[in-house]
Amino acid sequence: MDYKELLKKLSESHGVSGHERGIYDLLRKEFEEISDEVLEDNFGNLIFKKKGTKGKYKVMLAAHLDEIGLMVKDIDEKGFIKFTTVGGVDQRTLPSQEVIVHGKKELLGVIGSKPPHLLSSEDMEKAIKIEDMYVDVGLPKKEVEELVKIGDIITIKRDFRELLNDYVSGKALDDRAGIVVMAVCLDELKKLYHYHDIYAVATLQEEVGVRGATTSAYNVEPDIAIAIDVTHGKARGVSLEIELGKGPAIGKGPNMHPAVYKGLVETAKNYNINYQVEPLPGPSGTDAWAIQVSREGVPTGLVSIPLRYMHTSVETGNMKDIISSGKLLAYYIANLPEELEGHLCY
């Protein structure tokens, strides 16, 4: 499997929270070759099951499929589309972006605002407010209203780019990169012997409240779970310790079970996989938070891919981190003992 090509396809696909179904066919096609069964639960989460040799215990992997985006709020008298946000969109990054309005048919548009020539010196010093932006699709109001309705989704149009030194950039690497990590893991497990059934879940609506993780964990009832997401990577002007190209970040804190954390670290050391430790003293803000407290509680871990410029259209990561994250998970799963009862004690 070409993991970079898969990430490109996923990044350039569109699936704002609550509207992820447009990516289902792509995922099914890519994952049916590396999993034994493809399931869909009532909420819409896609679950890729890979059977173990015993099948007594369940190991759940979770990476969210949804992305942040925009939603049509109004159409003014000139045909300009006013919008609001879905998820944590940074409004400072929106002016001059190319977008796709997903109405009765896809409409290419641009996000416009008042030109700097017409701004006061005071306004020039301020970020443009989202209520002062609009999408211009080049049509009059009547024609726009025939194609676009209030509540329609708008996504950023951005091509995936390969940078130097295995760096890649594009939209929605949060968390389509995590989906690719699951693909690497399942692909690697085809070569390995493992006792336990694997449930790799592409969760929905993480960006608006870890909803897919909540429902899928309740449904799967895993014995162990590991969430896969992105984390803020070191960048210019940002005082962070997690670096791109230095391997996955393994979360450590109350959201993560100590035995799962220890197992991931030991696996990384035993297989010479570079890794970093991410201290998380409170809620992790990922699917791990919902999974941990599902039903009676689930021993949960977190593996994160270092990422720059999160929640922008130029999110930047490193393919080496993505591939090593998938291999780390595969080797961890392959080394889990046949009986897990004593393995997960505090």
UniProtKB/TrEMBL annotation:
**Is Oxidoreductase a UniProt keyword of this protein?**
no
Which Gene Ontology molecular-function terms are recorded?
aminopeptidase activity; metal ion binding
**Cofactor field:** a divalent metal cation
Q: Can you tell me which residues form the catalytic site?
A: E206 (proton acceptor)
Q: What are the recorded Gene Ontology BP terms?
A: proteolysis
Q: Which InterPro entries match?
A: Peptidase_M42, Peptidase_M42_aminopept, Peptidase_M42_dom2
Keywords from UniProt, A to Z, are: Aminopeptidase, Hydrolase, Metal-binding, Protease
Q: Per its UniProt record, what CDD domains does this chain match?
A: M42_Frv
What Pfam families does this protein's entry cite?
Peptidase_M42
The domain of life for this entry's organism is Bacteria
Enumerate the residues binding Zn(2+) 1. H64, D174, D229
Which residues are Zn(2+) 2-binding? Answer: D174, E207, H311
What is the free-text note on the cofactor?
Answer: Binds 2 divalent metal cations per subunit.
Which family does the record assign? Belongs to the peptidase M42 family.
What is the protein named? Endoglucanase
